[in-house]
Amino acid sequence: MQIHSAIADLRTALKNRGRIVFVPTMGNLHAGHISLMEQARAHGDTVVASIFVNRLQFGPNEDFDKYPRTFQADCDKLAAAGVDVLFAPTESDLYPEPQEYFIEPPGIQNVLDGEFRPGHFRGVATVVTKLFNCVQPAAAVFGKKDYQQLMVIRNMTRQLALPIDIIGGETVRAADGLALSSRNGYLSEAERAEAPRLYRLLNDIRDAIRNGQADTVQLENAAIAQLDAAGWKTDYVAVRQQSDLAMPKGVDVPLVVLAASRLGTTRLIDNIEV
Q1: Catalytic sites, residue numbers
Q2: Rounded Cα–Cα distance for residues 5 and 11 (Å)
């Protein structure tokens, strides 16, 4: 596996490499990330991963400084997964001067996760656009666990006419249902045992909708009450349309149930499609 930090070196390395499929990450890789790499292999000739902890998408009180950096272990996992090229820029490589031009998503950036993380999706959209310009892939793979992020990137790519296919990778879960996440490492032993409750509640909502329950607000409130009773601090549990994350106009369209809640000091997100 080749490793490059300079943009010019990366571009030289990717000349005449056929159809390039790109998987951007912030490192601290787990089986969920590796599944995206494996999925990428099925869509092209050359798989490129990136590792970059993007300061722009972290709020002032978020965990940028303590976000786990496990570069050597990450490289070993990527090489074992058959990744061809790793792009691992430093901040000075990707932001050689203060970033003054930004990609500003529309109203979708201010709802759900965006309501509780102001500026987050602006930072995501900006860095992903820069990474796309560096790698120039034909396709890119993003995990469905970050459902709103996937929606922002998919819509941005379409509206800016970027020649990139956006592929959604299915969420990888532990045996008890907890979605794999780099932030799971922050959980205490007791919190880790409690954490699967979030996914169980999402399943309960999905099953209720499938069984004809049309009052999605009641389902949302009941799930929040159960989380509160178990000591969670919930930002949202929300039933939305898959197409645009708008409030559902009915339960006969493709829906997704999304949640973000804090267990101790760890904020967990998850979703399940209906």
Answers
A1: 33
A2: 11
